[in-house]
Amino acid sequence: MAQQMHYSDLQVCVLAAGKGKRMRSSKPKVLHPVLGRAMIDYLLHTVEMLRPKGLAVVTGHASEMVQAHVGQPQNLEWVIQDKQLGTGHAVKQCENVIRDVRDVLIVCGDTPLLRHETLAELVDEHRKRDAIVTVLTAEPKSSTGYGRVVRDKEGKVSSIIEEKDADEAQRNIREVSSGIYCVRHDVLFDLLHKIGNRNAQGEYYLPDIVPLALQDGKSVETVQMKDAYEMLGVNNRVQLAEVEALMQERIIYDWQMAGVTIEKPESVRIEAGVNIGVDTVIQAGCYLLGSTRIGDACRVGPNAVLVDAWLDDCVNVFAFSHIHSANVGSEAKIGPFARLRPGAELDEEVHIGNFVEVKKSIVNRGSKISHLSYIGDSEIGSDCNVGAGTITCNYDGANKHKTVIGDDVFVGSDTKLIAPVEVGSGATIGAGSIVTKRVKEGGLTLSARPEQRHVADWQRPKKKE
Ligand code: UD1
Ligand code: MG
After folding, report:
1. Count of Cβ atoms closer than 10 Å to residue 422 Cβ
2. Ligand 1 in reach of 140 Cβ (< 6 A)
């Protein structure tokens, strides 16, 4: 359990107005997903963990899209930055919505790997040292693209220089700014009103509050992150993939520590919204996506794809099965090569075998559909055996119709059930039947079969020389 925090005299300001030009997308950058969850959602979740007094989120480019995605949490205020004139200008737009707090924590919307513990450490250090401005810094493997932290002879920070404005020597500085700041509320906006835009990008840079605060004799501190990768910002799709890979490692690690066995972890994809029970084994090549939930002691894979799937305990999903928006009861066996489509609801101990497709159908306890079948818009009772090649003919070209099968029914192989149709409990349907009328309970029902002939003097054709 994450520890409970409560920073009641802190306001968080999230910068998310940028277009994200380098993403080359019609979608605002912060809505791009990392393992199935939008970047902004990670960040909002992280800052919510601090339980701050409130949140101001600055949007601009496609702000309606961002707002529609996030909705309207109670303590969140939207701030519009019409023109993206820089990070300093973005924070300045929050002047009217931030009040009655000691400090303002400024974060960027494009750093989904950030942990709340790291932010808490920044705020705590800022307060312990009684600083006016505290910059969260890091020493990543590559400093390319980041603002460099310039220090004086005593080692105190003197400015943050953006890469585009840096000279050769400054570019060689390994310590960079994460873009995350904790600033005393009572000085923040005075400082922001003083910054100019005479720099390589013609923007109002937030980092310029550092030299301005120092000029006023105010104390500026830095806190260096332990894990530099947490501040990785996504500016293009290469970085999106890098951040996603790191997030994947983190999610897999958490599930492993929580009691899940993951074979060949580098080959699986487990999205952020997935839940997995203890003693479950995820085999190589599986994709567990969306809001998929897997119970305890299940076995999935190899190479199964689960999208918004719900599996109860002790379920086996064999190789190459695809399950989308379907529920599977405990002890069920699925696949190999099975496909469960939206609305498939399988009870306990159901078996769905190879090349069987089930859509919007209820299959009750213990029933088996083992080979090559299509079951759609159906209800199948308990303990039925649906033979190979059975098809529920549910679609007349315009409308879908239901097939309802009772308990303990035996459907012979290659049966076509022309819906709407009902089959009474205990019925047996002969192989190859075409069922168009209600099948009575019990007994044997079968279609007339073509006569079988034998041609004794028939010769097999021979290949021409
Ligand atoms: C910024 C920092 C840099 C830091 C890096 C860390 C500045 C000038 N640079 O650079 O020092 O090392 O982050 O990742 O602060 N945004 C707005 N309005 C604007 C401009 C930007 O809301 O007018 C938002 C963006 O949507 C983004 C964030 O601010 O979420 C940072 O902007 P970005 O363009 O990614 O800045 P970087 O070049 O990464
Ligand atoms: Mg950035």
Report:
1. 18
2. no
